[in-house]
Amino acid sequence: MINLIIAAGYATRLYPLTENFPKPLLEVGSRNILERILDDVDPLPEVERHIIITNHKFAPIFSDWLKKTDYSKPITIIDDGTSTNETRLGAVCDLLLAIEQEKIDDDIMVLAADNILEFSLRGFVDFFKEKGTSVIMCHHEPELRKLQRTGVIAVDSDMRVLEMQEKPEKPVSNWAVPPFYIYSHSDLPLIRDCMNHGCGFDAPGNLAHYLADSSTLHAWRMPAGRFDIGSLDSLREAQERFS
Questions:
Q1: Which CA distances in Å does 168 have to 18, 23, 152, 206, 228?
Q2: pTM of the model
Q3: Is the pLDDT of residue 147 over 80?
């Protein structure tokens, strides 16, 4: 079974809107960003539960939101104990905290809390089951400038990841990697020990980069687009799209 883990941290580029309110709970049309994710994932029979890890500042807001929800799978809110952007644990350390606190020993799906997908994750889960390895997403990105600001992978004919770069000056391909992952339970020992082997702690892609060098990853091509809510302009664009 799959445990969904969503790390919901600070969003300084959306201040003052998110200075005292979590970005995943911002309304986009009739639903907030987090609900749009859960509406798709919750019906998947392979997904057992949802875990949302956030900071101490926003944990009470998520707890209040949880009282008003009605999903079929249990939802757990984890407070990582931090109170400022400067003292944040980082996405990888938040993930490790969730794994330890919830005693997870199964597959995990890790999703960014600030993206709205224009496709279902059903295909992503099917791809994970087909390959039997940890999997990441990718999409074709023609612009060099955008490739230099994200993760980039080289793959073989079976979409097995051969190399992963982070914000490369000279990208190895046009395959960009958004922050969506399913990690196999067989990779959990590597994940639990990743910080002892130089894995970066802040960006979620740091863990995928580490596993690309330490295990076997396959990449699933996104069948449609996404809205990355990283600025006020992108938020307005999404709100116009889903109004």
A1: 30, 28, 7, 14, 20
A2: 0.93
A3: yes
